[in-house]
Amino acid sequence: MMIYMKVNADLHIHSKYSGGTSKNMSISALSKEAKKKGVELLGTGDCLHSKWMKEIHEMEKIDEGTFELNGTKFVLNVEVEDNRRVHHLLFFPSISSAQDFRDKISSRSPNLDSDGRPNLALGGEEIAQLAKDVDALIGPCHAFTPWTALYAYYDSLSSCYGDLESYVSFVELGLSADTNYADRIAELERLTFLTNSDAHSPYPIRLAREFNRFEMNDIIYNELKKALLRSGRRRPVLNVGLPPSEGKYNESACIKCYTHYTLREAVMHKWKCTKCGKRVKKGVKDRINELATYDSPKHPSHRPEYLYLIPLAEIITKAVGQSSPHTKTVLTIWNELIKNFGDEVKVLVDSDIEDIAKVSEERVTKAILAFREGKVILHPGGGGQYGRVELPEGDNNSAQIEPKKKERVGQTSLFEF
User: Fold this and answer.
1) What are phi and psi of 181, to 5 degrees?
2) In angstroms, rounded to a whole number, what is the distance separating the alpha carbons of residues 159 and 143?
3) According to a count of CB atoms within 10 Å of the terminal CB, is the N or C end of the chain lower?
4) Which residue has the higher pLDDT, 398 or 120?
5) Domains in the chain, ordered, with CATH?
6) How far apart are CA 385 and CA 310, in angstroms?
7) What is the rounded CA–CA span in Å between residue 260 and residue 10?
8) Straight-line distance from the first to the last Cα atom of the chain, in angstroms, rounded to the nearest whole number
9) DSSP output for 26-75
């Protein structure tokens, strides 16, 4: 009988060659930080960029589509932007496949070697056809966010991908959506849902802040492909991500002062903020309500559990009352937990809470348990500002992982970058 391993994977990141990313986003740094996080498999991101591909070539080649450095495996992928600003995620089975795709789009992209996430003068269906031609997998990135997502500009998959809709194999939910949101839309039932970090920095507070867990027989590209397609008993078994209310476009809100509006209020005021006059941006929650087939989610049998978590350093920061995850107090506690359990995912997801209590102070243990049990208070994000998580007071177990409506202005977030 074949034995399947559980593999933690973050399949959407960016290199130092993408705009707004840390200069420390190197293959070497990613491979080392992934081990601290507890992620065995990363997407390379930006694999069409010639300088990033040079770093990829320096890794050990496991097979045509899998590479390894410092015990971390990588598969080839890239995010591209189409002519409607919709972002797509592609996975390539080999370097030659990625090169063939690059050759096909070279005359239709002005910035292939100046941005790791290139712009293409092509529509979604054209990109999907080129992906199919080189045997690459494709699906929409952060599918519901209001600026660069499929459902920001289209009402259906077919409107974007046309006759290639059936070739789309996954949907990336993004930080402002979860399984409960997306499974209200009937056309998404057949697709695998991905939860990825879209990290612009290699460190554990950014990398794999959202990740997937798959059952696979080996950590190689072909096994990942089977897991994404749910073939041969390979499959996703867990999605881990931020509570959607914490996403910065969860609710409709002003893009300048972040005042929140209901959909009715926003329409009534013609999407203009009554306080500062700037634009009110439609939130993911309201967009889902517009698109929804069902009043409540209908999860297909293949849909795994969705676990709500934030990075361990931020949980510790909140538990011990610090203002930053970079304080000596937070780092000391984080390092002690990693030393005892091996990586962050083991602390957040897999280790017995009794074992955590043996090596960590009570308030940190209680905070980790509150997230595992969904007993935190959420102040939703919107307009480009991330939401805020609040731990329940004392032993209060009545607070559930539900958004608490509260207007916020100027609040900073550990998730910026």
Assistant:
1) -65, -55
2) 14
3) N
4) 120
5) 5-244 (3.20.20.140)
6) 16
7) 31
8) 45
9) -HHHHHHHHHHHT--EEE---TTSHHHHHHHHTSEEEETTEEEETTEEEE
81 burial level (CB within 10 Å; 0-12, 13-18, 19+): buried
Answer yes or no: are the C-beta atoms of 131 and 90 closer than 8 Å. Answer: yes
Which secondary structure element, helix H or strand E, spans residue 297, and what is its range? none
Do 389 and 374 contact (CB within 8 A), yes or no?
no
Amino acid at 211: F
Q: Which residues, 6+ apart, have CB-to-CB distance to 326 below 8 Å?
A: none
Secondary structure class of 281 (helix, strand, coil): strand
- Return the SS3 of 335: helix
C-alpha 45, offset from chain centre: 13
Residue 87: its H or E element: strand 87-92
Residue in the block written with tokens 């919107």:
382
SS3 211: strand
* Cα separation, 167 vs 23, whole angstroms: 35
Instruction: Say which residue the tokens 């990942």 belong to.
Output: 224
In this structure, what token pair is assigned to residue 67? 């590479």
State how far the Cα of 19 lies from the Cα of 32, in Å rounded to an integer.
23
Strand partners, 135: none
Q: Report how far apart, in Å, the C-alpha atoms of 4 and of each of 161, 169, 229, 239 are.
A: 34, 22, 16, 18
* pLDDT digit string, tens, across residues 252-264: 999 999 999 999 9
User: For residue range 340-377, what is the model confidence (pLDDT) as tens digits?
Assistant: 999 999 999 999 999 999 999 999 999 999 999 999 99
Closest of 213, 215, 224 to residue 349, by C-alpha = 213
137-180 per-position pLDDT tens digit? 999 999 999 999 999 999 999 999 999 999 999 999 999 999 99
Nearest to 205 by CA among 336, 315, 116: 315
